[in-house]
Prior knowledge:
Number of strands: 0
Distance between the termini: 33 Å
Oligomer: single chain
Amino acid sequence: MLAAFTFNTAENLPVGLLELISESLRVSVSAVGLLVTGYGVTVAVASLPLAHVMRAVPRRHVLTGLLAALVVSSLVAALATSYWLLLVARLLTALAQALFWAVMGPVAVGLFVPAVRGRVVGALSVAGSLALVLGVPAGTWLGQRSNWEVPVAMLAALGLISLVTIAVLLPTSRPEEEPAAYGTSRNARRFGIVLAAGTLSATGAFAGYTYIVKFLGDVSGFSPSAVSALFVAFGVACLAGVSITGAVLDRFPQSALTTAVATQAVGMLGLYATGTHPVAAVVFLALMGGALGPVFMTTQNEMLHCAPGRTDIALAANSGAYNAGIAVGAALGGLVLPLADVRSAFLVGGLLTVGACAVLLGGRLLPGQDR
């Protein structure tokens, strides 16, 4: 959980330190923004190839190596005196995270009986969500009161604690012999459906969410201080959604995924339709936030069940596809803005999410070979 929290904080921390990094390294804010974009693209491209290359290495060795890369890259980033050195350090962290999400799930749930594995996935997702609610705000606060290098160096300290813990306590075994190395009910058709729906959902979500600050200011009329408070509320809603979904994930894995995607669609289309009314905007923003985390969590959980081969390869494919959806969604929203307005970005995102719902429901209704 600490490792998941640290990796997610590392991914998103530059968002809160944009101006500090920009002033310190004398580069534009948009160039600093590429530190986040490049990170996501690297995870999307590298997840599956890295999982394939490392498929035979014992998981304890892989995880300690990934956390060592996180520690080293965070220290290099904290000591960077140029933008390009910082970018290289960020890409190294991204490569480590690309494989981390593929390996972590099977290792963690394999320590427990199958009946409670959904709760384990939920606990890991809560830790990841805390990065947005606690990690990034705390890092931003610390950076503003010292300098941006301090919170980045703190990530190295957190990574080191995780590294030592896993290196000392995690059992060593061959990957194919681990309890969760293969899906509990292998189903290639279901795997394809979940992968497609998750990608569509991510594309839709980030077509709008990338521009949520502009929406809340220009459409809903909130002040900058109110927008900051709403960001915290969005994170709390995300954390609440993950916590609630994790509690029912073992009993209703497929329904949990469909519900999360449908809730995201309602939230985005509701913002498009009623976003000019502040109260309605807050309600539908909370719905969108409450669904954003659970969508990825439930697709990851589904991969542990329906993976047609090794679960680490299936999880890598899911993580890569989801991050690709994030990148495409952000670009799509950017294309919509000059052609229409920011409300239209949420309409497009909502319709894509409705498409994800249709894929999930169609997969249940249409006849076909399941296994």
